[in-house]
């Protein structure tokens, strides 16, 4: 068997029994996926996925970063090169290369997600290896030609109640429009991710500002016009179901500048070559402006800071962004968030959800902040920590100070569509295991644990993101 029915449950028999009982009641709950990066085109066009390699390997930076670290060239995995140079085009060859390296994923969440998918969707019982690579390829390839594996059929099979994609303000949302026109009942909403027009260091920032102006009919080279463009675009995104914004800044820094200082800073970043200090200050101030707009329009504000993007210079030049070369860095929240919290931390109608890639900040900074400020909530274990041990550490380091109700359930944050049920299942199991231990150490009654398991799997995400 590829997956065991007791996976991730406590080793101790009495605790395992409680975890099983908790899990049995929540395992089939619908999936709320309030933050992620699936392609809205899939739901709009409902076309078959092309082949196993294009579905599982080529778009998944978890997979190719590991293969790359062990000497496999990205060209040999079919990753397009910016200068148009030669890359592997044969999906079966890519799949065989991936299968030959499957042992590299031992002990990683990638392997747990893949095994879950291979087992539950395609009925495999044997571990993927070079020996069975072709048998795997053929069975998956055949399944992908059937109506049950079309994106919308999978959406229903996965019991997705709502899923958010993530788009730039420059995106016309045409796939969301197609979904709406189609009459299909699946709930796919967008989320507002304005980094391309908020981060002066983003590629093409000034051209992006010009385009932002054309789209919104605002003068995006004046400070007030620029803010107005955001207001209009946020309203447009809300028409397509958006309930949240998302900000992927290098740090969590916020600022609260006077109107005059903000205007002068905007003039500099929009017209001159930008200094790193100005870029950082502008991003910082824009988080506070975004919070001000959220107070007006009710959109939930997510901050995903602390990723050093495109760390590998050579890879970035050759392949572009999102190539598995993003590395976590140390992140300060206590000082960084203060300007924003000074202004909006006590707002009863504002929700700011903070994530971290710096686990040392959980107990020292984030849990105390979220356990105090009404506007602040903690996002779940993210990215490198979206894994059983990462989730367990998250609960252990935050619960005693922030409780469960200042957290927001699970986000799969994925572009790997088929892994969504597997990822939610891991979160549900780890939370049940954590709750079982609280029950067995007499810190929680079992009836409360049942309620909590439901809240963590379903209700908190739905409520925090207003879905
Ligand atoms: Zn994300």
From TrEMBL:
Q: What is its EC number?
A: 5.3.1.12
Q: List, in alphabetical order, the Gene Ontology terms for molecular function in this entry.
A: glucuronate isomerase activity
Reactions mediated catalytically: aldehydo-D-galacturonate = keto-D-tagaturonate; D-glucuronate = D-fructuronate
Keywords (alphabetical) are:
Isomerase
Which Pfam families does this UniProt record tie to the protein? UxaC (PF02614)
* Pathway, per record: Carbohydrate metabolism; pentose and glucuronate interconversion
The record's listing under SUPFAM superfamilies reads: Metallo-dependent hydrolases
Write down the top EC class of this protein.
isomerase
PANTHER family per the UniProt record, alphabetical: URONATE ISOMERASE
Family membership, please give it: Belongs to the metallo-dependent hydrolases superfamily. Uronate isomerase family.
What protein name does the entry list?
Answer: Uronate isomerase
Q: Which organism is it from?
A: Microvirga terrestris
The coding gene here is: uxaC
């Amino acid at each position: 068997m590829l997956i065991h029915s007791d996976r991730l449950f406590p080793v101790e028999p009495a605790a395992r029994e409680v975890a099983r009982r908790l899990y049995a009641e929540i395992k089939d709950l619908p999936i709320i996926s309030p933050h992620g990066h699936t392609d809205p085109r899939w739901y709009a066009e409902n076309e078959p996925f092309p082949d196993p390699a294009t579905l599982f390997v080529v778009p998944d930076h978890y997979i190719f970063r590991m293969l790359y670290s062990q000497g496999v060239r990205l060209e040999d995995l079919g990753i397009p090169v910016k200068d148009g140079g030669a890359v592997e085009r044969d999906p079966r060859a890519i799949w065989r290369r991936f299968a030959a390296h499957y042992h590299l994923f031992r002990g990683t969440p990638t392997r747990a997600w893949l095994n879950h998918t291979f087992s539950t969707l395609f009925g495999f019982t044997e571990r993927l290896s070079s020996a069975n690579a072709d048998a795997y390829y053929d069975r998956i390839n055949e399944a992908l030609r059937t109506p049950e594996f079309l994106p919308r059929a999978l959406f229903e099979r996965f019991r997705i109640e709502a899923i958010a994609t993530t788009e730039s303000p420059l995106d016309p949302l045409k796939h969301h429009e197609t979904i709406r026109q189609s009459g299909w009942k699946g709930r796919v909403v967008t989320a507002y991710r304005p980094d391309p027009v908020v981060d002066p260091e983003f590629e093409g920032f000034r051209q992006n500002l010009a385009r932002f102006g054309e789209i919104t009919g605002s003068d995006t080279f004046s400070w007030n016009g620029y803010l107005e463009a955001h207001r209009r675009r946020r309203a447009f995104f809300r028409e397509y179901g958006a309930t949240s914004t998302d900000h992927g800044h290098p740090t969590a820094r916020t600022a609260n500048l006077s109107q005059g200082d903000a205007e002068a800073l905007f003039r500099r970043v929009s017209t001159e070559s930008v200094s790193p200090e100005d870029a950082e200050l502008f991003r910082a101030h824009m988080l506070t402006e975004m919070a001000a707009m959220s107070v007006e329009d009710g959109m939930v504000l997510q901050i995903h800071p602390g990723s050093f993007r495109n760390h590998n210079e050579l890879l970035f030049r050759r392949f572009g962004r999102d190539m598995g070369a993003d590395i976590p860095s140390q992140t300060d929240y206590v000082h960084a968030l203060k300007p924003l919290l000074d202004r909006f931390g006590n707002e009863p109608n504002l929700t700011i959800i903070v994530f971290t890639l710096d686990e040392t900040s959980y107990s020292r900074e984030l849990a105390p902040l979220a356990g105090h400020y009404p506007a602040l909530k903690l996002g779940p274990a993210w990215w490198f920590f979206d894994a059983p041990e990462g989730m367990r550490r998250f609960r252990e380091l935050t619960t005693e100070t922030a409780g469960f109700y200042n957290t927001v359930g699970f986000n799969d944050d994925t572009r790997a569509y088929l892994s969504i049920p597997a990822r939610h299942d891991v979160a549900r199991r780890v939370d049940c295991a954590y709750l079982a231990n609280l029950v067995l150490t007499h810190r929680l009654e079992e009836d409360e644990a049942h309620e909590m398991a439901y809240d963590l799997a379903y209700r908190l995400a739905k409520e925090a993101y207003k879905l």
